[in-house]
Q: What sequence folds into this?
């Protein structure tokens, strides 16, 4: 098929590569504008733009450019921008969404599934329409969430499964989508304030927050990140930590250096 592809982050690269490897003609890739990384550093392309260049594909930063691309279908993966109605009226689009709709519509379905304690999620190929992830579903696959699965691990698996599902669905023909059924839940973008650990919460909830990534607390008045932890007999046991101003390190090595006093804990 003649496709346009709309995506931005690293997780949107494997589906693009899978479509190209399957022989689809990708006539245009649309992604965000380049960003400056670090003070005084050069402009950096999005991961999808860098991949498109490696594949020799044309790139645009304007969604409206898809209207002149002579494509049969648009494919959207983690694009991060709303597709305007006038574009959807001219070009049908599908979205690779990382949840079992209508559960976890929105920007952070992977993180919200873990925070909620879901034991299963999935990935689906859905029709793009004006509403937020409200379109019918052409195909979907379930993926279990283990008790120690991190958001990074789950995201990697969903992208892998979803890339194959996308290629298979286009190969067999879209057909008619199945209307979503059930009560919708919404996956709002994670606010940094949500990632601060509240030690009064149950240990399993704290463990899920750490598994999402970016969880932090304070120790001796300074910000302190906990990147990984075990849940042992109902208690949080940090395994990978990052004190303020230092790189990630093994929690045991940190304890040997910090020498917490008996009963001293995070704040």
A:
């Amino acid at each position: 098929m003649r496709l346009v592809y709309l995506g931005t982050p690293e997780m949107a690269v494997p589906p693009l590569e899978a479509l190209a490897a399957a022989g689809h003609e990708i006539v245009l890739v649309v992604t965000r504008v380049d960003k400056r990384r670090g003070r005084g550093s050069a402009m950096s392309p999005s991961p999808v733009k860098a991949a498109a260049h490696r594949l020799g594909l044309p790139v645009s930063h304007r969604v409206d450019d898809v209207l002149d691309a002579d494509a049969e279908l648009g494919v959207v993966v983690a694009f991060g921008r709303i597709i305007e109605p006038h574009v959807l009226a001219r070009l049908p689009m599908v979205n690779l969404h990382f949840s079992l709709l209508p559960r976890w519509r929105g920007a952070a379905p992977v993180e919200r599934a873990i925070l909620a304690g879901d034991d299963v999620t999935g990935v689906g190929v859905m029709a793009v329409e004006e509403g937020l992830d409200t379109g019918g579903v052409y195909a979907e696959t379930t993926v279990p969430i283990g008790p120690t699965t991190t958001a990074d691990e789950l995201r990697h698996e969903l992208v892998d499964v979803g890339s194959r599902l996308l290629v298979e669905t286009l190969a067999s023909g879209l057909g008619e989508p199945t209307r979503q059924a059930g009560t919708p839940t919404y996956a709002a973008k994670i606010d940094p304030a949500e990632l601060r650990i509240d030690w009064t919460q149950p240990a399993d909830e704290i463990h899920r927050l750490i598994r999402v990534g970016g969880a932090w607390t304070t120790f001796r008045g300074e910000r302190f990140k906990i990147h990984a932890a075990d849940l042992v007999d109902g208690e949080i046991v940090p395994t990978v930590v990052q004190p303020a101003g230092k790189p990630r390190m093994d929690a045991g090595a940190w304890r040997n250096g910090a020498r917490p006093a008996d009963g001293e804990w995070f704040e």
Observations:
- Helices lie at 13-21, 47-54, 85-88, 109-115, 151-172, 203-212, 251-258.
- The radius of gyration is 21 Å.
